[in-house]
Amino acid sequence: MMDFISVPLVVGIVTLGIYKLFELFVRKKERLSIIEKIGEKFDASMIENKFSFPSRIFKNFSFGSLKAGCLLMGVGLGLLVGFIICTSTITGYNMGHDIDWGVRDTAGIVYGASVLIFGGLGLITAFLIEMQYSKKEEK
């Protein structure tokens, strides 16, 4: 049924694998050269009694997972609200093949708009949580 996609998919996966393999070796070379450059300037007396852990482990805390979680929660909520809107109106009762194209177009607009609105609200929520956390850290 989906034979048209199998060949490009396999070619893409193989190409990505080869690219990542080359990238792995190049990064290893870069890291070794950086270690060699640092090794020339490094002296063992530099770390005498100066080796301590920072007081805050999460000083550079990233909120990427919070943003992704809030975005996905907003998208899911948007899909749910779009489904409820479509099923509560006449669109949901006539989802067969005899439905008018305008009604389907309207349903698509409702789904798209609700997903974008609630996804944006999810990102705003993540931003507000991040701002509260940063204000708490400053105190």
TrEMBL record:
The protein's name: DUF6249 domain-containing protein
Domain (DUF6249) ranges: 12-130
InterPro entries: DUF6249
Residue stretches spanning the membrane: 6-26, 68-90, 110-129
Domain of life: Bacteria
Alphabetized UniProt keyword annotations: Membrane, Transmembrane, Transmembrane helix
